[in-house]
């Protein structure tokens, strides 16, 4: 690893971003955590605090470790504060233009050898890369939800990513305790390409009243040993994110497997985004 990654940046403190901040800070890395405004920062702080508070309450972390973790994180709404970062990971919503615009701006702020990473689940990393002046330093660094728990990271290497860039990101993922794989820039990469056809199928079974949500989830939990059933998992991922992922994969591959089941879009329009909005396939307190 040629870079020491003592300071990194994370942009977007939603479900994934706040978890990614925690992963870095837990591993002794200083984090500049960026959100658009004060309320969004407060929300990100609450997500991070909820997760570390739970770890503290369960005795998985001492008070000292907890406080040290939080002391490593600086919150800001100013992209210029990313200047000292050797890596910046963006984890903003799955909209191509937003990600392109953002990394284009970060490109102008960080030093020449810093790495720019996108946590996109399915958007073309190459297109995001070419929106910057130096596409060789852009990779995908795709974490899984909940990021502090799941031990997998996909490192997406485009045709123009420099070797030292994806090698350093892979080594960093190992330092974070993850099992990284390097994959090419194809919608859904590996895990989502396999997972989302299954999730979409479960939604269409639910939509056609083939089985109840509880029975669909029970089948996969108790019959197949999955940690969560497909509808509970979609609530965890977020229905808006799931819709964007399916839609991107459908547009790229045109296979019916990934044509988003209509009810997903309807639920998104109705604000039923899953856990984060309090209601999805299930209701949350
Ligand atoms: N943030 C941080 N930690 C969390 C957490 C969260 N949101 N949710 C759970 N945890 C931690 C708990 O604190 C607990 O930690 P300890 O064991 O150290 O005490 C551990 O995870 C287990 O949690 P629980 O006992 O509460 O519950 P569980 O055993 O049912 O596990 C789960 C919860 C980890 C979410 C598990 O059900 C699971 O792995 N589900 C599948 C998740 C999955 O498939 N994720 C991938 C989604 S696809 C994706 O992310 C890619 C994409 O691009 C959309």
Describe the model.
The structure is a single chain. The model has no long low-confidence stretch (mean pLDDT 96). Helix content is 46%, strand content 13%. The protein has helices spanning 15-26, 38-57, 63-71, 96-107, 125-129, 163-175, 191-207, 213-223, 230-237, 239-253, 262-269, and strands at residues 7-11, 30-34, 73-76, 87-90, 115-118, 138-143, 152-156, 179-183. It is α/β, with parallel strands linked by helices and 285 residues long. The protein has an eight-stranded mixed sheet. The N and C termini lie far apart (44 Å).
Rg value: 19 Å
Ligands present: acetoacetyl-coenzyme A
SS field, number of helical segments:
11
Number of strands: 8
Low-pLDDT stretches are: none
Q: Mean pLDDT, nearest integer?
A: 96
Cα shape? globular
Q: Which structural class matches the secondary elements? A: alpha/beta
Main-sheet strand order equals 3-2-1-4-5-6-7-8
* First-to-last CA distance: 44 Å
Largest sheet: 8 strands, mixed
Strand content: 5-15%
How helical, in percent, are the residues?
40-55%
Helices and strands, in N-to-C order?
Answer: EHEHHEEHEHEEHEHHHHH
Domain 3-hydroxyacyl-CoA dehydrogenase NAD binding: 7-185
Protein name: 3-hydroxybutyryl-CoA dehydrogenase
Family: Belongs to the 3-hydroxyacyl-CoA dehydrogenase family.
Domain 3-hydroxyacyl-CoA dehydrogenase C-terminal: 188-284
